[in-house]
What does this fold into?
Amino acid sequence: MDWKNFIKSLTLENLIPSILLTAAGVLIIRLLMKLFDKALERSRLQRTANSMLRSGMKLLLYFLLGLMVCSQLGVDVSSLVALLSVVSLAISLAVQGALSNTVGGVMLLATHPFAAGDYVEIGAIGGTVLEVGLTYTKLVTPDNKVISIPNSTATTQEITNFSASGSRRVELIVSASYDSPAATVKQALLEAAAVEAVLAEPAPFVGVQSYDDSAIAYVLRIWCQSQDYWDVYYAVNERIKEQFDEAGIVMTYPHLNVHLDRMG
It folds into this structure.
């Protein structure tokens, strides 16, 4: 573009409409942004997504206004639009992974399958959600490792949220000798479950899981608040051994009994 000729071509006839168009466009953009902000406030999107969408909308509106003003001044914007399209395509190809993660982040923030503080499993990875970012979701594992999962991966994996309902079930499988009465074992397990953080409703449940070669397997199911899961898990596990010792219940291990018969 010949800028010298363009500047010479500027007159009051095209400058004044352009200035008026700019002023009116700025006012309209501000009005539209207020309406857009109200729509975002009514949505279920988190603050991170709101900020990104607001910035994108504002940039788009001012870009359109710039094209309109340039057209009013007599600038051929078709070549500019074509150039920007080529540049946008090149940038999108160069940052395809980042864009995919960003889109995944918007999907996670919009659908809200989990929030910070929830204990989740994303695929085969389990941990407490530390942060839901635009490109990565960070989990803290029980052994205090921070794992960053690309959002594009998270959106394609099966997500299990253990904190969504506020409570979580603890299930323990324990083996006891065939010589121990089932009623005694079940009572000992219920007494072991008498931990303060265990919920009264649903009530603790004990049942026979299976009859194995060397022992009977019992299942103990109790409920607690999601944040108390590991405390309850370990506390009840310790109490089971104590209650079994008090009741004289033997926790057997795999063994083989050999009987020898004397001949003649």
In short: Helices lie at 3-9, 12-42, 47-72, 77-94, 96-111, 151-154, 182-192, 229-247. The two ends are 117 Å apart (CA to CA). The first helix runs from residue 3 to 9. The mean pLDDT is 81.
